[in-house]
Amino acid sequence: MGGCFSKPKPVELKIEVVLPEKERGKEELSAGGKGSPRAYQGNGTARHFHAEERLPAPHPYPGAQDCVEAAVCHVKDLENGQMREVELGWGKVLLVKDNGEFHALGHKCPHYGAPLVKGVLSRGRVRCPWHGACFNISTGDLEDFPGLDSLHKFQVKIEKEKVYVRASKQALQLQRRTKVMAKCISPSAGHSSSTNVLIVGAGAAGLVCAETLRQEGFSDRIVLCTLDRHLPYDRPKLSKSLDAQPEQLALRPKEFFRAYGIEVLTEAQVVTVDVRNKKVVFKDGFKLEYSKLLLAPGSSPKTLSCKGKEVENVFTIRTPEDANRVVRLARGRNAVVVGAGFLGMEVAAYLTEKAHSVSVVELEETPFRRFLGERVGRALMKMFENNRVKFYMQTEVSELRAQEGKLKEVVLKSSKVVRADVCVVGIGAVPATGFLRQSSIGLDSRGFIPVNKMMQTNVPGVFAAGDAVTFPLAWRNNRKVNIPHWQMAHAQGRVAAQNMLAQEAEISTVPYLWTAMFGKSLRYAGYGEGFDDVIIQGDLEELKFVAFYTKGDEVIAVASMNYDPIVSKVAEVLASGRTIRKREVETGDMSWLTGKGS
């Protein structure tokens, strides 16, 4: 069997790995919830569960009938630093050769199913080409986010120069592994008025904190409270796939929380935090004592303050219900989006196929200008214009006009009147920390909670994470920054949990984010605030490019479209502690990226 695989070129030298159309489509599909790994079709209705929790845990030494073993290649077929997908009959495996050793792992990223063979292998881990999650090649463990699950690790043996992989059939089909977690053994769980750990906010930071505590063997009571009426869900999907239903978006099924004793209080609003007595008070008067507290309240969307702001059918997108109502109201009608940032542009892109017309109103002269710069912003704007989106730039809304209470027209400061049946407002957000104003927990002038690298606030035993914090960014000289992105919230939730358990962990992740519009993805890594130049390689017109954001002679961020896995490569270089110089990216010679350069 060893010789039947054609030998791939070393993936390291090929910077430009473009996903074939069908693979690219899959990413957008899964980003829209339709390809969600948790939606299994059965009897025509989607049943949403995490397969692993319902099935008995795979036995560490499965019987022969549960296992499959095959020779997958000759030892000389792979060079060091190479990866290859190999077929075992029951499913594929990612085979990796690193420092002369072979490792076999699950081949798909558990987050959205990206093919990891197209990712980046570096420093004993493989980084996903789509959204930057990292997995240890020796254990399969998730080491950087987004996503919650790890990869299965399979047995490898070498006999007579052939590489054999042995795997359980079940693991091959599942493609994801939930780490072993402790269960709650606290007798007071579920009904008493005190908890060991209280987590305020059930986004990525809150959920990852709770899961990390259980993974690290913590078996006391954990209470997670949220303003939402749903269990934790994949919020970034809301603006990319407005039709998605709450159960398609769920990050974990109900059974998961029950199994591991993570109590979730939904529609629960904390109104005061009394740090002296270690107690929080909820809006309905319920009081809960805690020993350790994580504040991960996220942010609240800014709303319009113009005349007519109370008319019906004007939304900020915060919940699946908001998103679903926007789609319903926009079908065949006129939609106006205020704000050309990530949320506004994703919503505008999604509505083009549903609405009669889509208009975007923005103060800046190009979309994403502050984040991606003038040239990239203009190229993306052109893609939207080609999809019938009308832009009203360098202006803002002066009035919302209604007919029988429902929105009919949006009046701009430029005195232009735009027909509108539904309006989505995406003009930024503020930290949802109002409830902390009376407490002794420190807030900065903008309402953010400052934390150190261990996610500790100024009050012992009180940690904070996610969109509402500022923290020292290690690879930008510990500059205090706020990074309101999904991957960062995961990483901070994990560090907070580790420090609740006195493990002395520090936040060191390289920020990574993405946006998806019209079936195309833009990826971004780094922290580009204050960039003074943008160096573009590739073809902006064709939307097949990489943009390097520089400050002085240093590269501080990178964005790309149709140029995978370059953003994951740059993220790995930055994560390794190496500085990328402006001159290295100006020449167009990318050899430095593969470690062959200076």
From TrEMBL:
GO terms for biological process: execution phase of apoptosis. It is found in: Mitochondrion. Keywords: 2Fe-2S, Apoptosis, Electron transport, FAD, Flavoprotein, Iron, Iron-sulfur, Metal-binding, Mitochondrion, Oxidoreductase, Transport. One of its GO terms (molecular function) is 2 iron, 2 sulfur cluster binding. One of its GO terms (cellular component) is mitochondrion. Belongs to the FAD-dependent oxidoreductase family. This is Apoptosis-inducing factor 3. It comes from Ursus americanus.
